[in-house]
Amino acid sequence: MYYPYLRGKQFDLLALKTLLEADLLSKQVQPIIEPVKQSKTFWSLIDLFKQKNHPCLIIDNPSAGDFLTDDGLQALAAIPLAKARIVEQPIETYDTQPDMWIIHHAEAALASDWSTNHIPTLVSKEFRLLTHVKGPKIIMEDPFTRLPKNLFYTEYATEFFSSRKKSFHQLGFNGYSDFSIDSKIYYESSYPSNRIALHWIFLDETADLQLAHLVSDDELPSQKDKFFQVMVQLSDHEQRFPTNTAGLQLLQNAVDQEKFPGMGVIRKASVMNHLEIVSRLWT
User: Fold this and answer.
1) φ/ψ (deg, to 5) at 276
2) For the segment 76-101, what is each residue's pLDDT rounded down to a tens digit?
3) Residue 105 and residue 123 in contact, taking contact as beta carbons nearer than 8 Å
4) Residue by residue, what is the 3-state secondary structure of 200-256?
5) Which of 53, 76, 206, 242 has its CA 20 to 30 A from that of 63?
6) How many other CB atoms sit within 10 Å of the CB of residue 68?
């Protein structure tokens, strides 16, 4: 199983919603959503997951955001979907058990008694944790390097992203997880930039996931001009490594309408592209 970890930002949720509506998300792709915003989009997505009977997990103790109130936590607890929980104290001290444990920090996990644990646990590939934690484990990785300036992505325009689909089972894991085209570090907004960057997942000849960074120049007069320059780069890239995803079509629609869709839509298209490609690997 693949468990993409998404922090519940507006355009990430919209990416999931669009894929679900179009039946483009494999049921082997089970998103983990850490809710950070109270929004109509979040609640409509919850309804859609129920309607589609598509498995996902909602983190019931998010580390940041709008739900960190008594009412907010109660609202999350009432969601009729599987729950994941970030380990913030020894697991035996919780009154209720989730459907998945998530280990972001080692201290509480190492203080826990895992001897009778049977709940899947999301954990990084860290020797002391893998040795201490018992029960089924899901490997959590962070392959996206977030850089402070879009210009820096031009140094290596393409980089390896993941081949974990091929190896997680042989390594003894029950699944694998990453943060899609994002990093593990939570942030409210991205750095301001004079360049537009599109981070685009594609498959190479060996069916490994690679990540292309398509970056505009900074001296072009408008965001629209920068977007169109990036789309020329993407068109050239698609000639060599075609994805033909709904995310690609979303961007192409903006080109056909001769408009700049906004950075949120560009992010939505990138997430859609990634999750659709991974879904194809599971068919």
Assistant:
1) -70, -40
2) 999 999 999 999 999 999 999 999 99
3) no
4) EEEECCCCCEEEEEEECCCCCCCHHHHHHHHHHHHHHHHHHCCCCCHHHHHHHHHHH
5) 53
6) 13
Which residue intervals of the chain are DSSP H helices? 10-21, 40-52, 70-77, 106-110, 127-132, 164-167, 223-240, 246-256, 263-281
Residue 213 phi, psi dihedral angles, 5° rounding: -110, 110
Alpha-carbon span 13 to 11, nearest angstrom: 5
Report the candidate in 277, 14, 40 with the shortest Cα–Cα distance to residue 161.
277
- Phi first, then psi: give them for residue 212, nearest 5 degrees: -100, 135
Res. 185: pLDDT tops 90: no
Cα distance between residue 229 and residue 204, in whole Å: 24
Tell me: pLDDT of 8 over 60. yes
On the question of pLDDT at 183 being above 80, the answer is no
Does residue 136 register a pLDDT over 80?
Answer: yes
Mean pLDDT of 134-160: 93
Q: 């001290």: which residue's tokens?
A: 93
Taking only the tens place, the pLDDT of each residue in 186-230 is 666 555 579 999 999 999 999 999 999 999 999 999 999 999 999
Domain ranges of the chain: 5-86+141-281
Residue 158 corresponds to which amino acid? T
Residue partners of 195: CB distance under 8 A and separation at least 6 = 149, 150, 151, 215, 216, 217, 218, 226
What are the backbone dihedrals phi and psi of residue 101, each rounded to the nearest 5 degrees, phi first? -95, 145
Round to whole Å and give the CA distance between 197 and 195: 6
Q: Is 35 left (phi over 0), alpha (psi -120 to 50) or beta?
A: beta
Euclidean distance between CA atoms 170 and 9, whole angstroms: 33
pTM: 0.94
